[in-house]
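Changelog-adjacent note: as of this version, every example in the card shows the full chain rather than a window. The one below runs 354 residues end to end.
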Amino acid sequence: MRAQRLRTGLKGWGGVGAMAFACTLAVLFALLLPVLRSHDTGGQTGTDGHTGAGGHGGTLGGQARAAQECADPEKQTLAPSDADGPTIDAIQNRRGEKRKLIVGVDQNSYRWGYRDPNSGGDAELEGFDIDLAHRIAQDVLGDPDAVQFKAIPTNQREPAIENGRVDMVVRTMTINCARLEKVAFSAPYFRTGQQLLAPKSSAITGYDGTLAGKRICTAAGSTALSTLEQDQEDGRLAADTDLGTTVPNQLDCLVRLQLGEVDAVVTDGALAASQAAQDPTVQLKGDAFTTEYYGVAMKKDADDLVRRVNHVLREWRADRAGGWQDSYEAWLKPTMGDDPAKSEPPAPEYLRTS
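Full-length structure tokens:
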């Protein structure tokens, strides 16, 4: 497209003028190329002084290729491996108190990543995502507590990874094609779908015509918002449904709903169920209208770390004690129900890179 615009722009110019313009562009490109390459390869030092999850995976660029031909985003990941690599070496070579896995999480998602207000003063983060982060730290650093948690707003998940502020994000983050342009994902570790949350007294019945003229809250940068915008553009959602209320963190939508500033919330069904458990005056309305998968997000060139996390996920899901199902029982059963099979993703599929 850029080349086509250039050719169009040159039409009608004199030969000398066109040649001068082309030469100028060539010089500018030559000057910018090293900067572009530096940006592409990642591995830069983060804003807080540590090297992020950038190390050079070297062999593949598999996730970059996958993003260009994305059909099933949950399958665009690398095969498991327990081998070390440059990204993992950088994490393991941190010294002293800094020798920790730096993980972006939520601290307000009930039973996923949150601080229990009933557990006293300096309540530790806990929940399903927190269990997974500890499991990855155990594998990479030999200590489940060698984790530095950083609370990341919903709309800052990709930037936190790209800027090297965190090694990974474990934060109910849906794998999708748009995000694969910016970050790499592990295999799925949870299955969910977009769902509506509204007051029990509301006339809203689900993702249907009852949303006409209603105000819906979503988190900025969320899959919910992009899905609703696309559905409205395609005519699957009423044109007068108001999507103007967006918030940095998903829990803020529940507050807006409680204050009567919006009529409904759209978010992942797993999060919606947790919010309904926190407020008995609201409930899920209708069934999930999409199928989505959560994954661990990392830098695009951190191939060794992606493979290592997939290795951890394979073991975590297979473990009879202390594994995926135990975490589900401990955290999600009260809100998601007795059947974990509804939420466990299918056997993962991996990219073929040879």
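Structural remarks: The radius of gyration is 23 Å.
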